[in-house]
Amino acid sequence: MPQQHHDWLPEQRTTEPAEGVFFVEGPASNWVIVREGADFIVIDGGYPRDVVHVLASIRQIGLEPAEAKAMLITHGHVDHTGSAAHFSKEYGTPILCSPEELAHVRGQEKHQVTLGQVLRRAWRPRVLRWMLHVIKAGALTAEPATEARAWGADELGSLPGSPRAVLVAGHTPGHTTFVLPKANAVATGDALVTGHPLSKETGAQMLHPMFHSRPDAVGEALKCLADVDASLVLPGHGPALRMGIGDAIATLSTA
After folding, report:
1. 10-254: what fold?
2. Which of 33, 106, 246, 248 has CA 20 to 30 A from 64's CA?
């Protein structure tokens, strides 16, 4: 089991922006815990060496990791699937993703930034720091969630928070956002973020184009969320944002 970073404490990085919804800002990517009574799910799971942080954040709010009803995966990038294999193997937790993303989450396909794309930009201090963190976080030795399976709409609706999936392809072929209607919130994964180690800005934004499998499609796909009734944005990178998701998307076209 990886050791916890001494400067990352779950009580300092875990907030409850809506009742029963806990937003955890990991060292470089975020995850969400949705609780109803003693039942809970986790949305995404950080890098491989963030497993210890995911477990600590669950215990911080009085829950046991082994009792998770499911881990929902927005997409198959290693900074979001890093603890999925642990949950699957250790606890038998169902790992659920969209049908279009299943091969990616299982490690049968890759849709990610290439080493060449990163190295061409490694002279930039922000890129170099990010690249070093990625390596230390275990990205190069990540274990895929080979037992992952595709969710069904009825199955999702029966889970804590009654999540509803909205496919927002472009970042990856099956990238999914999860609307949490009871909390008036949406977990956006990497479709829309509010910060990133490579970005100098905070607030609603999109990742650098090199991170998208189809940079030309991701902006258009994001419009699928424009009419969603959600006033709390829970991104895969950056702080939570109290803004209507439609308004957040609108700022992207004028930024």
Report:
1. Metallo-beta-lactamase; Chain A (3.60.15)
2. 106
